[in-house]
Hints:
The chain is of the alpha/beta class.
Amino acid sequence: MKNSTAMVQSSPTKESLCQFMKNHAVDFTFLSLLFIGLLYIFIFVPSNNRPLFSFPKPQCHPSTMFNMTIYTDELNKVLDETSMPNKTLIIAIVNKAYVEGDKPMLDLFMDGFWLGEETRALKDHLLIVAVDQTAYQRCTFLQLHCYKLETDGVDFVGEKIYMSDDFIKMMWRRTLFLGDVLKRGYNFIFTDTDVLWLRNPFSRLSPNETLDLQISTDLFNGNESSEANHINTGFYMIRSNTKTIALFDAWYAKKDNSTGMKEQDVLETLMHDGAFRGLGLGVRFLDTRYFSGFCENSKDVGAVVTVHANCCRSINAKVADLTTVVHDWKRARGSRANETTAFEWSKHEACTDSWKN
Ligand SMILES: *[C@@H]1O[C@H](CO)[C@@H](O)[C@H](O)[C@H]1NC(C)=O
Ligand SMILES: *[C@@H]1O[C@H](CO)[C@@H](O)[C@H](O)[C@H]1NC(C)=O
Ligand SMILES: *[C@@H]1O[C@H](CO)[C@@H](O)[C@H](O)[C@H]1NC(C)=O
Ligand SMILES: *[C@@H]1O[C@H](CO)[C@@H](O)[C@H](O)[C@H]1NC(C)=O
Ligand SMILES: *[C@@H]1O[C@H](CO)[C@@H](O)[C@H](O)[C@H]1NC(C)=O
Ligand SMILES: *[C@@H]1O[C@H](CO)[C@@H](O)[C@H](O)[C@H]1NC(C)=O
């Protein structure tokens, strides 16, 4: 009994079958007209005048076939994988000296993302650029986004003592590489690995599109527009556009005519020669209250975003003093709000001593 009821209900009666046919005949006529209409629109109306549909433009992938993105090279692939939807990412460059030791600098750098406020998720958008094989292996071991930067005939393996020839060479290679990233259409935060990220910097960087470059300072003079600030290229955010690409070209062009100067000094010289204004570049100099360092401590641990081991000569000294910063940070976070006003950073003793010999 139950079965037959089900049969009746599920098989159409003659009457309903007839209705079904009629409806679909109407549908068919309607669909045919729609199809012809669309065909007309797509064939005869120029693409920018099409009224009904506008397809999203494919996102800068070199070529897309059968839903498969084919990259022209490895760098485009890692940039695409690492960046946010708005083509923004974080870039750090490491060599062997930064992945070795009792506590490698790279590990300490990653500790910052773990201990910081709202910084953990940023790891997904961090690209580690390794200039030698050991650094690359360490990066993949840590399961980060990694890219191996090849440089013909140059050994970037050892620690590069501040201002040694190899140090300067490595700095220039970095400028060339970062200019290339801009040319590929990516915005980025460049960070040295001796910068501890204690808070998410995007909240303190201005989203205003008129700002092409927001760069940290060794000493902040109180004016975010003043070129009298001492810039530090160890942390900055830059947008990809014709102005910033021109800046990097002008910067790199000085490579062979800047003996004894590191790339940061060359950029500062360019700035004082009016290059920023000449290019119409929107530049903001970052307050050390938020983007601080050993040259000038942040005056507010309740707002500090980054701490850079600048004004320091060796990796060992940086690691020692940044470890102290981690302890300071834990102490500050453990204390009540009314106690952070009395907070003071520990002295950067190892870094002070690093200049003594
Ligand atoms: C096509 O790409 C999209 C987005 O990457 C993905 O979600 C989808 O599963 C892919 N489809 C096929 C058939 O591979
Ligand atoms: C990209 O998106 C992030 C997250 O929404 C935002 O903080 C950042 O300012 C954006 N970058 C640019 C260059 O607009
Ligand atoms: C961005 O900065 C420019 C120049 O300082 C200013 O005129 C403009 O109002 C700012 N835009 C926003 C959305 O704040
Ligand atoms: C900040 O510096 C800019 C550029 O030098 C200058 O035009 C402006 O007057 C300065 N602002 C203050 C408050 O001093
Ligand atoms: C190098 O710089 C000096 C002045 O700083 C300039 O006179 C000279 O033309 C430059 N040489 C090249 C090759 O750019
Ligand atoms: C901070 O506030 C707590 C209670 O809110 C109080 O017990 C403590 O004494 C205060 N500490 C200082 C240094 O004022």
